[in-house]
Every structure is written in structure tokens, then in C-alpha cells.
Amino acid sequence: MDSIAHSFCKVKVEALQDELERSRKENETLKVMVEVMSGKLSALRSNVQEIGSNSPLSGVSPYELYGLNKRPRIEIPMSKPSQILVKTDPKDKSLNLKDGYQWRKYGQKVTKDNPSPRAYFRCSMAPSCPVKKKVQRCAEDKTFLVATYEGEHNHDPNGSPGHSMYSPDSLSRSSRSSTVSCPVTSSPFQTEVALDLTLSSPTHDHKEKPRQTSLEDNISSNTNKVEEYVASLAKDPSFTVALAAAVARSLSTPRVL
DNA sequence: CGGCTTTGACCGGCGC
DNA sequence: GCGCCGGTCAAAGCCG
């Protein structure tokens, strides 16, 4: 009888040891994942400081600025349409966002979720260039314009070669918009981080808080979000394999921070 | 006069 | 089928 109980306990202990070992391995993997995310957040933090002290931007595309697309560690294709956020003077009623290309406005509409009107633009080279964009003020923070681009230009800005969409030239030509633009991609982290840089929670009072403080708050809250997200994924047994593959990929490529 | 913006009308998708 | 909503059309007006 004792021997039966003993073997039962032994099996139980072995199972628990296996479970413990598996949890330990998962924890190590998660630790690496969180470290990678922290690195990305540090890069964001330093870029935000750089923008604050070194504005307007000089010759750096927002994608490069945030280190998001040089070498994606987890390969998720860039979403189409893509969005950028541009800080502007809130008193400026114009939704004409100077990005180096010429646009023709073909409509304006007040949408349900945002009291600010949404403007619809087509590339002036249409129909040969099928690119469209929508521009609308951010509902939570009217100092930001949200521009949604659909399609890709098949020509250079202003018809001249060598201009990037976010070239210093195109930015300086804009009298009202310059300070911050950040891309929103299909990655869940990138999307949340990018959005939260400008779309803070409604509980924040923008009128009394300096912009920089608000950004810092959001970065801090994003750190928590990343950790919560990783923790929630870890509860999914099928995630371990996918996570290991993603971490392996991320470690096999140079850090872009 | 040509190119652009404005703005009300119209259309199609979607949910109920 | 109906109403809502986002997206587009197109006529009218504006401007250089």
C-alpha cells in the first residue's frame, strides 16, 4: 500500500518538476522578449527627447526615426492603408497637410466618431497615380492631424527626384506642421505605441500638462501594456512555439535601436 | 480661363 | 426593407 502511494507521489512530483522546468523555460523566453521590447521603448524614449530638442526633423523618415522598419524582427507586412500623425496648430482649421505631394481635395465629411470634419484628398496626378488620403483632427487631441494614406505614389513629390515624403524640404515648406509624425503599422505593439504617443487616455488633461510629460506618461503606460500583453500571451499554450520562433528571429538579426 | 476648393447630393455597404 | 454612415461625385464659386 505504501509503495503504491509512494509511486503515486513520485509520478506527481515528476509531473510537477516537468511543469516547473517548462515554466522556467517559458519565463526565460519571456524575459528575452520583454528585454527586446524594453530596448524598443528606450529607442522611442530617446527619439522623443531628440524631437523635443532638435525640431524640426531633419532628413529622417518617421519610419527610420522610430526604428520600426529597417529590419522588422517579427515579420509583419506594412499595413495598407498607413497612418501618420502630425502635430499642427490647433487654431489652424486647414486640413491641408503638406507632405511634399500635391493633392486635390474631393470631399469633406463629418464622421460619427469625431466632431472634426474629415477631408478626402486624391493625388493631383490622378488617375495615373491612384493614391488617396484622408485627413482628420485627432478627436482626443486636436493639435494632431491623423492622415491615412491609401496606395503608393508612382512618381516623385512635386515631380522632382530625390524628395522623400518626409524630406526636410517638404517639412520646412509647411508653415504650420512640423513637430512630430509617427507611423502606425500593423504590428500590435507598434500600433499601440504609435497611437498612444498622441492619443492619450481621456482622463489626461492636455490643457494643463506639457506635451512632453504626456508622451512620457504614455511611454510608461506602453511599457505596462507590453508586459501585460506578453503575460497574456504566455497563458496560451500554443504561444510558446510561436514566441520561441519570434525570439529566435529577433535575436538572429542586428538590433535596430 | 484653368485649376482648385466647397458643399450638398448621391451611392453602396452594413446592421437591425 | 429601412436607416445609418462613410466615401465619392459634381456643380458652383473662388482665385491667381
From TrEMBL:
Coiled coil: 6-33
Keywords linked to the UniProt accession: Coiled coil, DNA-binding, Nucleus, Transcription, Transcription regulation
Domain of life: Eukaryota
Transmembrane helix among keywords: no
Pfam families per the UniProt record, alphabetical: WRKY
Domain WRKY: residue ranges: 97-158
Record field: compositional bias (Low complexity): 164-185
PROSITE patterns xref list: WRKY (PS50811)
Segments for region (Disordered): 151-185, 201-220
Localization per Swiss-Prot or TrEMBL: Nucleus
GO CC term, one of those recorded: nucleus
Molecular function terms from GO: DNA-binding transcription factor activity; sequence-specific DNA binding
Gene Ontology biological-process entries: defense response to bacterium; defense response to fungus; regulation of defense response; response to molecule of bacterial origin; response to salicylic acid
InterPro entries assigned: WRKY_dom (IPR003657), WRKY_dom_sf (IPR036576), WRKY_plant (IPR044810)
Name of this protein: WRKY transcription factor 40
Organism: Manihot esculenta
